[in-house]
Design goal:
mainly beta, two-stranded antiparallel ribbon
Length: about 45
């Protein structure tokens, strides 16, 4: 399971533009619907 801390560590060389943990209701077909813990990451690779 991914966490914000794990992603921050994995992408430590990148500029973190946005890193947000949240819970959202998902509907992805009959096999998966309901609340899910999510981590959104937007990062920029250094030039």
């Amino acid at each position: 399971m991914y966490t914000a801390a794990l992603l921050r560590e994995a992408f430590h060389d990148f500029e973190i533009v946005s890193l947000v943990e949240h819970d959202s209701a998902l509907r992805e077909g009959t096999g998966h619907h309901g609340m899910s813990a999510l981590v959104d990451l937007v990062a920029r690779k250094p030039s």
